[in-house]
Amino acid sequence: MQTVLWFLVAIGLLIAVHEWGHYRMAVACGVPVLRFSIGFGRPLLRWRNRAGTEFVVAALPLGGYVRMLDGREGPVPPEQRHLAFDAQPLRKRAAIVAAGPLANLGLAVLLYAWVAWWGEPQAEPVLGSPAPGSVAEQAGLRAGERVAAVRFDDEDAAVPVRSFDELRWQLTQAALQRRDVTLLLGPAPELATRSVPLPLAQLQARDVDAELVQRIGLVVPWSAPVVGEVLPDGAAAAAGVREGDRVLAVDDRPVEDAAQLRAWIRAAADAQGHTRTQRWRIERAGRTLELEVTPRPERLGDAWVGRVGAMIGAPPALIVVADEPLDALARGVRRTWEVSALSLQMLGRMVIGEASLRNLSGPLTIADYAGKSAALGWVAFVTFLALVSTSLGVLNLLPLPVLDGGHLMYYLWEAVVGRPPSPAWMARLQRAGMVVLAALMSLAIVNDLTRLLG
């Protein structure tokens, strides 16, 4: 129920902002707006303003519309003909249509800026153990090293890194853009003790998913190999492991961090589902003890992994990342631009077959993440809203006939040839656009169900 509630809050707000963009631009251009509707179907609430616009909140909240005075949709009194939408010059019609997506992009800028100004706790950019066989491991990166900056190899200036999230964002972008980078390690960019090149261009990244992060290798920030909650019926409890124990070594191999310890526990199971006993050297209340721990096998997909029935790893060190107001606004603009460019890049790759269509998400995934982000707090939910608002703005600017971008495509044709497309062509393009959009929505819902149902 909470998931549905937060989904309705999110989608209702974003649709309202989108339609508000159309509405405000129409009013600014002198075009009368007959109805401003959030949702479709039976009206739940309705009222009118002094200008005569009817505002409606309808039963089905998955969309909205602004109905303007338009000779193509009904009779227009002769004295108002010059005010109708279809009687406006090209520049005004284009501005009214573009205002909706631009309102979503503008909202994203403000939301990202608010998060950057308010600040949020993020993990410090201290590396956990690189994933085995990953680019990071092959480059020689080690657990506990701090990343001060990232330098793209085709640029001179380095980008300072303040948190582990910023580091992963920069590396993901580099991999998708097929660009090599160099990590500057140290307490600050000007105090870097060494630099490590990462050849990310070789990854031939297709999807933004867990597999890409795993191949890069910097999956989680550093956390101490400390045991958290121990389940009473788990393998750790049976071996005498207690909450608060710090694992120093496994089978005489020093443990560098919690990520490495978790990897060794999982690797204790073989392909047949048998596990081997591990010898743990732990520190407890200033004393060093040795315990024999036998992880229990658990089926995970097509493979067996070891489990000990305990939380492994202390929370990573956190830092509050916040900007001054003007810097926050600049960061909001930059992040909206980056997310928009990334979205278009992925859509383009899906069209030409270089990226998987699994990247498409629909309303079920949006609803799922709305609930999850709201459970994490206001900052996470606002960041989620900014991401979806950016996606909604970019989607509506695509040149599909049923979307705002399709209408802008018609206006571009009109600007070039001096006349609008013929009604027959408009009808054909609208039908084709509906087919494409229906196919995309069907695929997105199938992807949603696949994710949610495993």
From TrEMBL:
Its EC number is 3.4.24.-. It is a multi-pass membrane protein. GO terms for cellular component: membrane. GO terms for biological process: proteolysis. The chain crosses the membrane at residues 94-115. Residues 200-263 form the PDZ domain. It comes from the Bacteria. The keyword Amino-acid biosynthesis does not apply. Belongs to the peptidase M50B family. NCBIfam families: RIP metalloprotease RseP (TIGR00054). InterPro entries: PDZ, PDZ_6, PDZ_sf, Pept_M50_Zn, Peptidase_M50. Keywords: Hydrolase, Membrane, Metal-binding, Metalloprotease, Protease, Transmembrane, Transmembrane helix, Zinc. It is found in: Membrane. GO terms for molecular function: metal ion binding; metalloendopeptidase activity. It comes from Tepidimonas aquatica. Gene3D superfamilies: 2.30.42.10. CDD domains: S2P-M50_PDZ_RseP-like. PANTHER family: MEMBRANE METALLOPROTEASE ARASP2, CHLOROPLASTIC-RELATED (PTHR42837:SF2), REGULATOR OF SIGMA-E PROTEASE RSEP (PTHR42837). Its cofactor is Zn(2+). This is Zinc metalloprotease. The lineage of its organism: Bacteria, Pseudomonadati, Pseudomonadota, Betaproteobacteria, Burkholderiales.
